[in-house]
Amino acid sequence: MEDTKVYKDRRLELSLEKLRDTISRRYGDKQPLCYLHSYGCQQNVSDGEKIMEMLRRAGYGFTDSAENADLVILNTCAVRENAEDRVFGAVGSLKKLKERRPDTIIGICGCMAQQETVCQKIKESYKQVDLVFGTYAYGDLFELLDRLLTEKVRLFHLGGDTDAINEELVQLRNNKIKATVPIMYGCNNFCTYCIVPYVRGRERSRKPEAVIGEVRGLVEQGCREITLLGQNVNSYAYGFADLLKEIDRIGGHFRVRFMSSHPKDASRELIDTIVQSRHICKQLHLPVQCGSNRILKLMNRKYTVEDYLKIIDYAREKSPDFCFSTDIIVGFPGETYEEFRQTADLLAKVGFYNVFSFVFSKRTGTKAAEMKDDISDKEKGLWLRELLLEQRETSQKINDRFVGKIKEVLVDGVSSSDKQLLSGRTDEGLIVEFAGDTSLIGEFVDVRITKAMNWALAGEIFG
Ligand code: SAM
Ligand code: SF4
Ligand code: F3S
After folding, report:
1. Mean pLDDT computed over every residue of the chain
2. Domain architecture of the chain: domains with CATH
3. Which of 93, 185, 395, 431 has its CA 20 to 30 A from that of 323?
4. Which of 198, 79, 64, 184 is nearest to 134 (CA)?
5. Which residue has a Cα nearest atom 1 of ligand 2?
6. Whose Cα sits closest to atom 20 in ligand 1?
7. Would you state the pLDDT for residue 321?
8. Which residues of the chain have pLDDT under 50?
9. What's phi and psi for 45, nearest 5 deg?
10. Number of C-alpha atoms within 13 angstroms, CB side, residue 150?
11. Distance of alpha carbon 217 from alpha carbon 422, whole angstroms
């Protein structure tokens, strides 16, 4: 007899069967639709794709609009206050939808949902929400939905197994060209400003066989770019450089990227592995956060500016084309303007091709939330503007260096600003726009760079 089981895990399998029955009784021949939106980082997007694959197996289809969905899920981010404000705004606007279509199920999950205080606030003040589930609870989703469809309840579930990695929860992959592959979950670093360790728990790594098997499968299906994910990939429990070496042995034409790397663990072995590899992009996202050793200490980052520069110099010595991007926090509690300038000067010195900069946001429960903070948000906003203006010049200078060169570009799709043009990325991650046929989407093409803007390059197909 054919084995029709979807999951080996008996509890998941049974709860899926039960939910499928409930769905067919409730919706009959009409396929129920889900609208899911993920906020935040790529790991959260990857979690959202796992939830979507579970829902697809349960019988749901997907829609781009909450208006015609039977199930609305907001997969949230808590990293900064404005991320949370956006979610509360979106939840507020779902109130009208719930009044018009009371049968629509509204669920909130992800990092923000994992916080007790947020869960409580939703319970009390956002009655349109039927379900809150945290970052450890995805494996319970079938049971939660089944109860919502059969009982008149609201459910708030922040439990779940904080140590488990369920290899059976796989991502729904709509993009055939690019894929993300999580290699580890959680974070042990407790940077004093950051909420992530509180909402994602301690580090746990997937087994190398599982990661390598997944990457190999994606390459066999024609995937051209794979990004390995973790809050700090170089503390991968089974050796990150070894994992990269194994992945690099896989045949085929594809690229590998990864993020994020913590400077305290960015070793020479890692740089050597990248430089010697065939598939791994010579690009490192290495968040420095700030350029003052005093502030780095208060942030609990465990490296100095000098340590950081050493790893940059080493990489450039091994391969002058090595590219770096970074994250910056402006206005950490107690930071002076002079210390902020040290950050700005560091950016100019390193020459990052991309900088993600944020004004410090106070996160309740973190150590930095207790620190004295004298500088107004308005002032910090001015510092950020100053930094962005200077970085624009740096980016222009970096991009200018590419003019006249021939670069291999992976074509992503059509340009968002000019539909006549294709858009793709170089090995370094720089955007390149050029004229070409849409049949090239998903292919690697050689492009001669003819012009540099501060945000992208323009070029023409070579050969
Ligand atoms: N684990 C990664 C790392 O350490 O680089 C990324 C963590 S976080 C998802 C991405 C970025 O958000 C951080 O690098 C930091 O710059 C920023 N960030 C985190 N907490 C913040 C806060 N409270 N205020 C402002 N920015 C914050
Ligand atoms: Fe947050 Fe620091 Fe962990 Fe990154 S390494 S997730 S910034 S605590
Ligand atoms: Fe990512 Fe935001 Fe959570 S950045 S880990 S979704 S707090």
Report:
1. 95
2. 10-157 (3.40.50.2300), 178-398 (3.80.30.20), 406-461 (2.40.50.140)
3. 185
4. 198
5. 194
6. 194
7. 84
8. 1
9. -60, -40
10. 14
11. 28
